Each structure stands twice: as structure tokens, then as C-alpha cells.
Amino acid sequence: MPPAKTSSGRIFQNPFLEALTRTHIAVPLTIFFGLGAVSGYASVHLLGFDVVSTLSLYLAGALFFTFIEYIAHRYLYHMGTGNSARKQRLQYVMHGVHHDHPRDKKRLALPPVVSVVLATLFMGLFRLVLGPSGIAFGGGFMTGYATYLMVHYAVHTMNPPKNLFGVLWRHHNLHHYVGDEGAFGVSSPLWDHVFGTMPVDPKAKRQAAQA
């Protein structure tokens, strides 16, 4: 793995906008794990859903998040920019800076202001479409997002563990250091398998060739 910078330069000249591009990982984790817990509590104690129904909706919401994560990473963060300077700038601000500086700890999550706005929109949409069930479903979605943030932060700042979770380290490193046209899932490689975007691990390829 090539060396990676642990900090990055400025994105905006305006100091206020520049400050909004950075966040300590504890801030969004607290917000979204907290929102997930509050949603689960509200579903059971305020809306009257039983624990099994709430847990089922919660897990469905978390699974749905992994799908949205994959779609956003593949088609939004890695959008085609062509010769458009505006699209190139947008893509760099949203995600390109992360690929240039993958170990910048303060740019491993969306800024809290952006995250809260998106969370409000998603929770409102789930409530509108699913009715009261949308609260628990949305809680699972927010917990899925918080889990994604935690995994993403760990992959970029910690050594891979020698257990099952090491799969996530290897998978995301394929995206960063082998080719960003695949391995779009971060919290799970599930949708890369489903949609055929799982890249070949060069190490596994070499081992197969030597066998």
C-alpha cells in the first residue's frame, strides 16, 4: 500500500466554508447512533410497535442503507465529469479530495450540517411513505449510516484486524489502491457481488496463478 497523507489542503478559501468540510468523527457518530436509538425507543414506547416488529423494521432500514451507500458511492461520488470543470470541481469537493488524502481523519465523514440535512430529508421521506413504521425503518437507516462511518474511519486509520472484519479493510483498500471502478461498498461488499463490481484482488490472483 502506498503512503498516504494524513492531512489535506484547503478546498475553500472562505474560512467558514473550509471549516464546514472538516469534522471529528465522534460528532456524526454521536448524532446518528443517537438518532437510531431514539427512533427505536419512539417506535416501541411512543408508537406502540412491539419489539420484534421494531427490530425487523430497524434491520430492513440498515440493509436499505447499504444499498443507498453503494448507489451513492458508485454513481454520485464517482460520477462521470467529462470535460466539465464544474462537475470536476463538484466531484473533487464531494469525494475526490478523500481519494487524494485518504487518511485525513477530519474528512472521513460528511460535515455534520450536510449529514443532518440529509438525515432530516430521509426520515421525512420514510415517514411519508411508510407511515409510523418509517420511524423504526429510519432509525435502522441512521444506524447503518453511523456504522458505515465507523467502519470507514477504522479502515483508514487503523491496522486491519486478524479476524473476519479484516475483509472490510481488504475490500475498501481494493477501491483506493487497485482501482476505483469497483468495490463501492464500504460497510458491506454485498452489493458489489450483486451488481458485479467486485474487483479481482491482485494478491489472490497471484496465489491462484502459483497454485
Task: Describe the protein in words.
This protein has 211 residues and is mainly α. It has a domain at 15-159. 66% of the residues lie in helices and 0% in strands. It has helices spanning 15-20, 26-45, 51-77, 85-100, 112-130, 133-157, 166-177, 190-195, 202-210. Helix 3 (51-77) packs across helix 6 (133-157) and helix 5 (112-130) runs antiparallel to helix 6 (133-157).
Give a concise summary.
It contains nine helices and no strands. It has 211 residues and is mostly helical.
Question: What attributes characterize this protein structure?
Answer:
211 residues, mainly alpha, 9 helices, disordered N terminus
- Choose one word for the global shape: globular
User: Total strand count, please?
Assistant: 0
DSSP summary: helix tally: 9
Class by alpha and beta content: mainly alpha
